[in-house]
Amino acid sequence: GRDAFAYALLLTEEATIRHSLSHSDGMTLSQVKALMLCIRAVVDEAFGDNDRALTVEGDSERNFTAVDVALGIPSIVEAIDAKEESLETIISLLEETQMGSLLSFEGALPNDGTITLKKRDISKLVAEEPVIRAIE
Length: 136
Hints:
Blueprint lengths: L11 H11 L6 H19 L25 H8 L3 H12 L26 H7 L1 H6 L1
C-alpha cells in the first residue's frame, strides 16, 4: 500500500531513441482518416456497380446494408504509416457496440493462401459467395 518509486537510468545517446519509442504507438487524426478512406474504398469495391445502399454523410435517408469485405492489413499499415498493433486497436474500437458498432471483425487470415477448385468455376462462385468476392 505504500507509494512506489522507479528510477530510469539512461545513457545520453539512448535518451532520444527511448523518447521516440515512447510516442511511437500513437496515431494521428490524418492516419485515422486515411484508414477510414481505405475501408470505404474496399466497401465501395464490394458494392461494385450494384445500386449503392450506403449513403454519404448529410443525406436525409440513411440506408445501410451489411457487406463482407477483407481488409489487407499489411497494405493498409503501409498506406497509413502506422504499426499493425495500432491499426488493430482502431479496428477493435470501431467494433465496440457502445460507440454504435461500425464494423464486425471476424478474424485475421494469413496473407497468402492457395485455393484449388475441383469442379466449380471461380466466376460462378464469385456471384454466389461473398467471401470469394472478397479474396478474388
